[in-house]
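Next up, a specimen:

>
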Amino acid sequence: MQNDLLASLKRLSDAELISQVKTLVARERGATALLIAHLAELDTRDVLLREGYSSLFAYCREALGLSDHEALNRIEAARAARRFPVIIEMLSGGSVHLTAVRLLAPHLTAENHRNVLADARGKRTEEIRAMAAALAPQPAPRATARPLPAPSPGATLAQTVMNTSSGVVSQPAAPPASAPVRPVEEPTSQGTALPLAAAPYKRQVTIAGETIEKLRLAKEMLSHALPTGDDAEIVDRALTLLLIELARKKFAATDRPGKARGAKAGSRYVPAEVKRVVWLRDLGRCAYVGASGHRCTERGFVEFHHVRPHEVGGEATVENIQLRCGRHNRFEAKVYFSREEVSGVVREVGPAYGAVARAAQANSF
């Protein structure tokens, strides 16, 4: 179909082609303005939280498939348009673009927005940056001095200064004849992960000889329980034990840890052993699952959430505590206490998230 479309365009005259391009650009601007208006309204509702997204930014990336830059531009424009609706009209007419709105939005006020936006008509990004700088002048940077690296063989001082300022290290044109040419190696500090299918990943890392010996020793010691000697299974078991140890340190491990248990009746306090099991079970990530089956991807500043609220008798047990990001924690409290209906909300953590927790409980929690 794409080939047919491209072939059909070859039959257009120059005038027809230019006319259609202009028409399509106008339609795109109109569609963009409509999208900005819809995002502005969406940003005021709880529907995204209900669907399992921690923010409008997460929704734009994960559900709408926008890049980080596309999402940022549209969200900033939507929030600015909610304050100053004239932006919608200007975007639709093409007098300002999304990047201009994003750059100017922090500096717009009820008093200046019309004049600033009028001055921005038809301006390019660099001109808009200059406008933003004029609206919020910054002090001149302080003078600094730093040593330069030794000049590369054959490089002048001017070349060294220029390459250093641009972040490029000058190299000689060719290695000496006596020096063997070494192949370029992948950085050893970070590995690469390539998705192979829906779940498995190919992870490639460079490890030391001692680490290889540890892996071989682990294979030998697991030869009866794991006859195949699968490296992936051994790494998974090792990471599970590492997470258990890290959780013990993170959540105040005691000298005599017992089985996971709840706090005293009526207490809001969540015991350390419960925190450890819950953190491992939920893999340090918000466990809220929306009506469509989407699980929230937020990992930052997660909180321990009572599925049955403490105020109505919910206890701090492994079964009643789950991880939530701050926004979903507040959202569920609002829903529960306002008795709002949230159909299809999944409150249970699925079996995929329970493997580590089962191992944790089996290791003297």
About this structure: The radius of gyration is 29 Å. The longest helix spans residues 14-42. DSSP finds 15 helices and four strands in the chain. Residues 272-362 form one domain.
